[in-house]
Amino acid sequence: MMLPSPPRQAERYSAYVPPQHILGYLKALKIVIAADGTVSDREMQALRVGMRYMGVPEAVRQQIEAFDPQETRLLQVLPSFRLGGIEARYLLRDAIELASSDGVYAQAERNAVNRIATILGVSGELVRTLESLVELERAARRLKKALLPRSLPSVLTQDLDHVG
User: Fold this and answer.
1) CA atoms of 94 and 21, how far apart (whole Å)
2) pLDDT tens per residue, range 68-85
């Protein structure tokens, strides 16, 4: 059963990823998760869930599903974000989260994230901070599950994890 995109989440993404940049944003994410030579099922599922939360139209989702990240370079797809801006930081945060969603944040994926950071004018220090943020968010979700395993239905818990 496909659930509608949570409105607040879609609104948040639309506030910093303009519609004309969404395709490049998503292609860049797919390039990062393929940097280690493969896109795991967990990484692809995380990308699909992310697209749903972003309110990405079905036609764009299909384009991303069909997109071969091995045939394209980052410079060809990266949106023209303001250097060091919020859009660039969200792209990096999302890339780190997706790349590590299979339990392995491979060196090649880390290198791709750092390349995006360099291109988009984000410092290495901020990248390390974003990596820490992703791990803290993941740890908080694990702790919540351990302490309150039946607190809310999983769909509501997922939605609340992404509200912020």
Assistant:
1) 15
2) 999 888 888 987 888 888
In CATH terms, the superfamily for domain 7-161 is TerB-like (1.10.3680.10)
For the chain, give every domain's residue range: 7-161
The tens digit of pLDDT for each residue in 86-144 reads 889 999 999 999 999 999 999 999 999 999 999 999 999 999 999 999 999 999 999 99
